[in-house]
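Notes to self after the Tuesday call (sharing in case useful).
The group wants a holo model before anyone commits to mutagenesis around the pocket. I volunteered. Ligand is flavin-adenine dinucleotide. Logging inputs and output together so the record is complete.
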Amino acid sequence: MPTEIFAPGFKSRPWWWEAAEPPDRDNALPRQTRVAVVGGGYAGLSAALTLRRLGHEVVVLDAERIGWGASSRNGGMVSGGLKVARGPLTQRYGEARAKEIMAACGGSFPFIEETIAREGIDCDYKRVGRFVGAWTPKHYRVLEAGAARIAEMSGLPTTMIPRERQREFIGTDHYFGGMHAEATGSLHPGKYARGLAAAAERAGATLVDGVRVTRIEKNIVYTDQGELHAEQVLTATNGYSLDKRGTANPWFARRMVPLASYIIATEELDPALIEKLFPKLRMMSDTKLVLNYFRPSPDGRRVLWGGRASFAQETPEQAAPRLYDTMCDVFPELRGVKLTHAWNGNVAFTFDYLPHIGRQDDIFYAGGCQGSGVAMATWLGHNVALKMAGAANAPFALDDLPFPTRPFYNGAPWFLPIVGNWYRLKDRLERAAA
Ligand SMILES: Cc1cc2nc3c(=O)[nH]c(=O)nc-3n(C[C@H](O)[C@H](O)[C@H](O)COP(=O)(O)OP(=O)(O)OC[C@H]3O[C@@H](n4cnc5c(N)ncnc54)[C@H](O)[C@@H]3O)c2cc1C
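Result:
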């Protein structure tokens, strides 16, 4: 283990938690409520906020702390459905349905901007744009073919950046050009989780942490601390839907494919270097199957580098050297800098690569943001809340779509190491042929 990459005092926990660690709450579990929400991430909190604004009593339960999951660990890159727009929607659903789905996803970006402004959430939000680097010339052409669709979906421009102009957008020659999408912002995910929780509480929601839901049956939510009776229940457990202790909702867990995503944070660096690598402090990602996503910290002093460093169960310390090497391949100037933090969290993919809301066996659900859920989970929570309250005044295209699973799949993705190795090999072969 190359310990020389770790700074003295290195911590294996989110750098975001230095400023905004999810707090402990000592609210007691009520016995009765109108709506119970299982999972206190962006989806559950956003649902609670909307339900309260519509006058419904809500209790949010989290097995750990409110905001403890992906919602306080992510990269803080805010975009609305970029990944959905790049997928094969039209082939699968036909032109008209694909357009409706994209419009539904596109709503997430303005909605999160509006939520942050309306609730006065102090989370370092800025609309900065994102550069997506093409791993091969072919990927550049694929980006180009989809750019208009993203612009149409978001209502904000996308611009193709050929390799000759790349350094105006990113301080490297590593990519074969790329796409710049204006519909992307950056925020501090820990502060956003904390602010959304505070907004839900201000609106009158009760947030209870340290309560694990073990089963949901009709109107009874069974927990490790007793029962909660509710007229309606929402499952918003996303990439944490199943663990060794079980699941609150087996039907939902069978449709979530949890995948660990890892991030490293460097020590404080010269802001001039950061500005050179990340002109205008933009968000960055690339088109590799084993994706990299990277950004400057909100104060412009550190590099935060994220990726699917491991498809097996690895600790952040074990995964960090691989992320570090990839970071230095893209930005050789960073070789030698130290890491102060490394962490991971679970995202949730679905078998049709789409986010979903809906209702099954009288239990509502929202989730499956394909690792791009800062805006989307907030938006899904809002939309499922409208559905629960009977207050949706227009159809939402992600509502009650067919929601596939696979035979014998219980929510534990044993196949990920195999898929991951294939993706790594494919990335390497494509690059070698480029
Ligand atoms: C490392 C990482 C980087 C990411 N980067 C980005 C990014 O840059 N941009 C972007 O858009 N998205 C990103 N994402 C994805 C984004 O963070 C998620 O899509 C989003 O936070 C999901 O929110 P959620 O509310 O659905 O789930 P979560 O925030 O994961 O919340 C689920 C909660 O459910 C609780 N729970 C589970 N089971 C139970 C139970 N039985 N009883 C009670 N509670 C339970 C868990 O404790 C957890 O707190 C990233 C994710 C990770 C992990």
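Two things stood out.
The radius of gyration is 21 Å.
The chain has one domain: 3-433.
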